[in-house]
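subagent[fold] <- orchestrator: predict structure for attached chain, return tokens only, no commentary.
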Amino acid sequence: MEDTLEIQGLEVNGNQILRCHCPSVPNAIAALLLHIRDTSGNVPHAYFGWTEGKPIAYVLRYIFWGEGETAPLTREILRSVEPDLARRPKIHVA
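subagent[fold] -> orchestrator:
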């Protein structure tokens, strides 16, 4: 099992993006946000969109395959590791 998260910065169609490969996307995003906060001294913000579809299907996907909505899972991970709301990275969903 690899314990290092490798992140690559790219420019795609004029947009700057970060790309990584990992088994758990919410954990990787939370780790990156905490790293950005710790190295910059600023609380980062992450912006997500809701996935369209049937909510019950997402519940079943989470129960059987461990997959789910990235935004709430990332927020819960951050909430569990950073109790101080003022230092916790912000998650926005629209």
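orchestrator: received. Logging for downstream: Strands lie at 7-12, 15-20, 45-48, 90-93. The helical segments are 25-40, 55-65, 70-81.
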